[in-house]
Amino acid sequence: MKVVTDLASGFMGLFQSGGKTLIGWMTSIIPVVLLLLVLMNAIIAFVGDKKMAKLARASSKNPVTRYLILPFVSAFMLGNPMAHSMGRFLPEYYKPSWYASIAQFCHTSNGVFPHINPSEYFIWLGIAQGVQKLGLNTMDLAIRYLLVGLVMNFIGGWITDFTTAYVCKQQGITLSKKVEFNG
Fold first, then answer.
1. Residue 183 and residue 176: Cα distance in Å, rounded?
2. Where are the domains of the chain?
């Protein structure tokens, strides 16, 4: 009988733990993301759809601005997960590549800019602790991680362009390379 009650207690404990996590999110990350979304939409409304579409068109013209500059600025200014939303201004063809680039960048910048992805900062701290035990400078590692991340995220985004082209050809799908912003 003890085994059954222990299983039932463990099963309920799982949901109680999930509830505590949800309440923690409701008082921490969800309001931040919600307010960032409101701010971003307010800026878009203030600037105007046409100017945002113009910025998107300019950003999507070459891979350097698409997968190096725009992801860095988006992640730095908006943090994870809000930085992903900047992809909405890009043409449909480039959205898979944008996601590949920005998703990686939100991870490779934690050592220098912990505000970008605070929920995964503990991973960086674990690595940094090992580096500190070796007597090495963690900022040197953080800068190298950031620089290698920028290059690899750019390459990942650009390679995804080729993957998208291959899949579109294989599936007979045509994705627009023009910005179509509807608000």
1. 17
2. 1-46, 48-182
